[in-house]
Amino acid sequence: MARRYALLDVFTNRALAGNPLAVVLDGEGLSDERMQAIAKEFNLSETVFVLPAENPAHSAKVRIFTPGRELPFAGHPTVGTAILLAHERFGDVEGDADAVVVLEEKIGNVRCGVVLKGGAAGFAEFDVPKLSSPSMPVGAKEPIAAALGLSPHEVGFENHVPSCFEAGVPFAFIPVANLDALSRAKPQMQDWDGAFAAEPHRDVYVYCRQTTAHDSAFSARMFAPTMGIVEDPATGAAAAAFAGVVRHFDELLDGTHFIRIEQGYHMGRPSLIDLEIDLDNGKLHGVRIGGQAVVVARGELYL
Fold first, then answer.
1. pLDDT tens, position by position, 2-31
2. Catalytic: 46?
3. Catalytic entry in 41, 46, 70, 166
4. Most exposed of 39, 64, 167, 245 (fewest Cβ within 10 Å)?
């Protein structure tokens, strides 16, 4: 059976940048084991399988797999799939076209607003289905620094210290002093378990305040070697959880805050993730993730 698929680059407005994504449009009838094998075959950070929606009012049900396991939610697959399904609905557009795409993910229903522009990258923004909350404490600076190949004095800046937050997928958030430290961070697998052995801290988001782009607020890298992802060019699920980090350490005032995160620059795949945070009475009230994506290839799987 021929199954259509598309490849997209997400959180970018040009091909061969951002985070690549595979979307299998005809996923019906595939077993869990077959989906995992296909994701391993594509060997991208994530592969999405599109299935008929359980609720006919929704756009699709989706399953999201890394090369190593299934995820209940992920950001760049949500953005990329929403833009692709809007393209499937409207085809090539000459002006602007707006769409609402509702994806049934394992975490719940994710509502996405999509804007297509003729001859330009599409844009999607979605409401994060689960607000960021603290998870288990992380360890001391010394083992964390060793696991990243850094010195302990390079871990932390201002009042930011290592923490763990989750918005569907947990991450250990490790602040580092500057871009130089961020560029030198590299998983040291002989020390990884010593720093991050206790679940759910094995996926690590390293960030600093210093940035490359003038309009970015943070620069970040994400390492998930135990998920089959040595480094991820852009991680929307981590950005969703990062909302809790920023609220906690930066003590934001009530209202709406726009934060742009740059990621992937150290991999030669620059990515820009838009994070919007709504605060009410000092608490997270709403979080949105947005970004662009372009379709770079289409094909068929003969499976």
1. 999 999 999 999 999 999 999 999 999 999
2. yes
3. 46
4. 245
